[in-house]
């Protein structure tokens, strides 16, 4: 492999983040009349729908509060996070800290709080904002929301579950995956460290010992409550992007616990997952796959999505940073090439989210119901920071 200028690579990611992507969201997404954020944004940033999706509101609060905490005390970032948090607290939940899925522009609830991920991102948002401001009230909101997440964990959708109880009960991979990340996010404001440690241990067990299938080399998205495989559409579903995102969360937990074995195990699985999920014909990573190779029920199975490739790139460069595995570096460089050629918009700020299998832009939007101010800026920040750390260590070696 030719010598790589990690410092130049890092600067490319930093410049894209600070000169293009963050200004886009600060300028285009803030609703300066009613508060909160617009996320349904055309290619040029113009608003095409004013409904507000609560998990994306929480993600944007989190993103700007996190950057304020980790990068610089930029007052514009903090102001953006705080105005979003005020809207989120006033209108976003039902009074019991279960957060709705969507609201009107003014803040009236549209869709009930069936989706526990509205809670998880609100929890992360208020925790980061508590650190940024020192405001005990924000910490209290985060703790109350965390309590609701733990209370709902065994039955996340509650009375909004569509399935008939008892016929085919399932648990999904997404919840333990996100709890692994959320645990580290909220650690500074959680007083009961034993509860946090227990939550981390349970999530690690679920990811590595329950959902990971060693014979396949990947995690499955759904299992029976006893951990057994289910032979149905949902039970055969594999989402390689979810796996790889979870695995860099696992690496962070390995750092937090001083457990190199967790990091090494995560790296090994990540290499199996990306090889499994890579489209050998057109490049890029499939969105959904079937563990038996059957047709999927998701018609978008072969689309190439922004978050899948950014999270995979984080996993690979973090894995290289923490283990020195050259295969991880090779995969990162392949992903880096794919990202910048296919997802970056050469004419307007922010990145495309949805490509077809061949890597051509399918939807030119910059934000919508599912894409907001999160994966692109978080990915650029994470990758740029890791690349700079690698560059500094090599320069000081």
Please tell me about this protein's structure.
The structure is a single chain. With 397 residues, this protein is mainly alpha-helical. The chain has two domains: 1-29 and 168-397, Alpha/alpha barrel (Glycosyltransferase); 31-155, Alpha/alpha barrel (Glycosyltransferase), CATH 1.50.10. Helices cover 56% and strands 8% of the residues. The protein contains 13 helices and 14 strands. It has helices spanning 6-28, 54-70, 75-91, 116-133, 136-152, 174-186, 193-211, 233-236, 240-257, 260-277, 306-323, 326-342, 375-396; strands spanning 40-41, 47-49, 52-53, 102-103, 109-111, 171-172, 212-213, 218-219, 222-223, 237-238, 289-290, 304-305, 354-355, 361-363. A hairpin with a 5-residue loop joins strand 13 (354-355) and strand 14 (361-363). Helix 2 (54-70) packs parallel to helix 4, helix 11 packs antiparallel against helix 12 and helix 11 (306-323) runs parallel beside helix 13. The radius of gyration is 20 Å and the shape is globular.
